[in-house]
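Weekend entry, working from home. Most of the wet-lab plans are on hold until the incubator is repaired, so I used the time to fold the two sequences that have been sitting in the queue since the last round of cloning. Logging both here for the record. First:
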Amino acid sequence: MPRPKISIIGAGNVGATAAHWIALKELGDVVLLDIVEGMPQGKALDLLESSPIEYFDADVKGTNNYEDTKDSDIVVITSGIARKPGMSRDDLISINTKIVKEVTQNAAKYSPNSIIIVVTNPLDAMVFVASKVSNFAKNKVIGMAGILDSTRFRTFIAKELDVSVEDVDAMVLGGHGDTMVPLPRYSTVNGIPITELMAQEKIEQLVKRTRDGGAEIVNLLKTGSAYYAPSAAAAEMVESILKDKKRILPCAAYCDSEYGVGGYFVGVPVKLGRNGVEKIIELKLTDEEKEMFAKSVEHVKNLVDVTEKFL
C-alpha cells in the first residue's frame, strides 16, 4: 500500500521545517515545492540524507514543478512573504493573496481530492482565498492558527507554574492576530483550570504575551518570523487527518451558523479526522468572551473584504 503523499508548497523556513517534522513522524512521503530553482531540491536531499540516522522511512523530494505534487492527500501552503519588524500580519495581504491564489489553483488542479492546510499570513484571509479559488468542500480547507496560538499560551502557562508542558491544555478562539481570544476558563493543568492556579493579573499578562507571540519573535529575529512552532502545529494537523485521530484542535474552520459567524473561516475547536473538519465544537462563552470573539470575527470580515479586491 503506498504511503500517504504530503505536498508542502513553499520551502522556506516554515515549509522545510514542516517537512522535517512530517518525515520524522513517518506520516507519509513529502514533496517540497518552491519557485526558487535548486532550493527545495537541496533541502529535500539534505533532509532525506538524515533518515538513516533518525530511522525514518519516508521519501522526501524537492521540486519546482507542480506535476510532482499530483494526487497528494494533503497540501500544506506556506508560500508567501514573512513579516518584518513593525509589520502586522495584515500588511502582507496584497502580496500573499496573489501568491496563495496561484498556489491554490495549481494544488487543486493536480490534487483535486486533497485536503488543504493554509499556514500563510494573514491566516484567516488566506484560508478564505484558498477556499474560494479551489472550490473544495468547506471541510477540506483548514487554516493553521489556533494550534500555534494555544501552544504559545500552553508554553507560557507551563513556564509560569513550573509544570510539565504535557499536562497543560489551552484554548484560543478567533482570528489569528491581535484580536485572538485566549480562554483562561478552558485552559487547564491536568484538568485544573488555570484560574485556580494563578492570579488574574498574571493570567492577563500571559494572554497578552500570547497575542503578541508572533511579533515578539519577529522583533527578536529582525529578519523573518517564527517557524519551529508554526511548522510543528501544521504537522500536528497533518497527523490528525492522515491517522484519522479525530483530535479536538483549534483551527481556522468555516463557520456558518456555528458561533453565529455567518460564513467565514475563524479559529474554533474542531474534530480533525480523515475528512478534514468533521465537527465544530461550540463552547459556551461568557458575555465578555462573546464580545471579544465578535470583535475578532469583525476583524476577519474586514480582512476578507480587503482580500477580495486582490482576487
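Second, folded right after the first finished:
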Amino acid sequence: MEFIIAFGALILGGLVGFFANKVLTENRISTAERKAHDLLEEAKNKQKQILLDSKDQALKVIGEAKEEERRQREEISRLRTRLEERETLFENKLLDFDAKQQKVYEQLEKMEAAKEEIKKIREQQLEKLEKISALTKDEARKVLLDNVEAGMKDELLGRIRKIENQSQEDLERRSRSILSNVIQRIAQTHTAESTTLIVALPNDEMKGRIIGKEGRNIKTIEQLTGVEIIVDDTPESIMISGFNPIRRHLAKKALEVLIADGRIHPARIEEVITQAKKDLVSDISKAGEDAAYQAGVVGLDPKLLQILGRLKYRTSYGQNQLQHALEVCHISTLLAHELKADVTVCRKGGLLHDIGKALDHEVQGGHPEIGYDLMKKFGLSEDTAYMAIAHHEDAPRTLEGVIVKVADAISGSRPGARRDSYENYIQRLEEIEGIANSFSGVEKTYAIQAGREVRVFINPETLDDYATKKLARDIANKIEAELKYPGEIKVTVIREKRVIEYAR
C-alpha cells in the first residue's frame, strides 16, 4: 500500500513539475518574444533614421555637385568667350600682317628695279670714265692704290713700328719673366758624350791579355759587341769606339768584368758578354723607371719604360737624351703652371717627346712619327702623343704643344747642353748669310753671336724704310722655313745713308 502511495505521489510530483516547467517555459518564451519585438522595433527606427540621414547627405552631395557643375560651366563659357576674342584678334592681326607683307614685297620689287637702274647708270658712268681717262677699271684701281700707298707709306710705317714696339715690349717682358723663372728653377748638368769610351787597366800587361794570341780575344770582343777596341801607346788604358752608345757601354761592362776576373779567353768572353747584356737590359729598365719617378709620371707600361730607359745611352749633339727628356719634362711642367695649361699632358709629353730616338736606328721614319705611333700603341691620349710631333712643328696647334716645343728649345740651347763640331758651326753661319744675300738690295751680311744674330747692310738708294721693314720680315721667314736651329735668330737690317762734302 505504501508503495502505491509513493508511486502515486511520484507521478503527481512529476505532473506538477511538468506543468510548472511548462508555465516557466512559456513565460520565458513570452519574455524573449517581447525583447525580440522591442529590438526589431528599435532596429526599424534606426534604419528609418539612417535612411533619412542618407537622403539628407545625398541631397547635400547632389546640391554641391550641381553647384560645382554650374561653376565649371560658367568658367568654360568664360574661357570660350576669351578664346573667341583671341581668335578674332589673331585673324585681324593676320590680315594686317598679310597687308604689310604685300607692301614689303612691293617695296622689294621697287628696290630691285632701282638697283638695276643704278647698275645701268654706274656701268654707263664707268664707260664714260674709261673713255675719258683712257684706262680700264683694273688699271684705274691699280693707279689709285699706288697713289694711296705712296701717300700713306710713311704713316703706315710709323703705325707699324708703334704697334710692334708696344706689343713686342709687353710680350718680351712677360715671356722673359716666365722663362727666366723657369730656367732658374732647373739646374740640370749636362755631360757631353762622344763616340769613344776609355777603360782603365791595372797595368800595361793587361793589353796583351786583352788582345790574346793572334788577336783572338780582341776579335771575339769586337765581334760579339759590334764595337772597335783601340789599343795604342796610352799607358794603362784602352779605347772603345763605336757609334752605338749601348754597344759601347756593353763592351765597357764586359771588359771591366774580364779585367777584374783575370780569366780572358773566347769562352769566358762570350759568357761575360752574355751576362753583361742581361745586366744592361736590367739597367735600361731601371733607368726608365727612375726617370718616370723623377718626372712624377705614373701609369706607363713597363715596356714603354724600358724603351724610355734606352735614351740613357742615346745622345744628340753630345747631349744625353734621357737627361734632356727629364729637363724638358720639368720645364714644360713649370711653364704649364704659369700659363694655366694641361699640366699632365705637358709632363708626360715633355718626358716622352723624344722617345722615338730610342728606336730610330731600328724603325724606318723620323723620330717624331715613331714617337707618336709608339705612344698611341701603348694607350696614351692623342694630346700626349701629339707632343712627339708638336715639338718639331713650326706652329703647334695646341698650347701644350707650344710649351713642349719651347721647353725643348730651352734645353737644347742652354750653354753646355750640346756640342757642335767646327764644320757644322761654319756651315750654319754660311747658310744664314747665304739666305740673307739671296735678296736684292743686300750689300753685306754678317752672322754673329754664334749664329744667333745676322746683320744685313742694304743699299739705301734701292730700298726705302718701308721696303727695309718688309725685307727683314722676309729674311726671317725664309730662315724659319729653310734652316733648323735651336732658340731664335735675330735679323737686323741696317739702312744707312751717308752724304760727305768737303769745304775748301
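Plan for Monday: verify the second prediction. The chain is about 70% helix and 5% strand.
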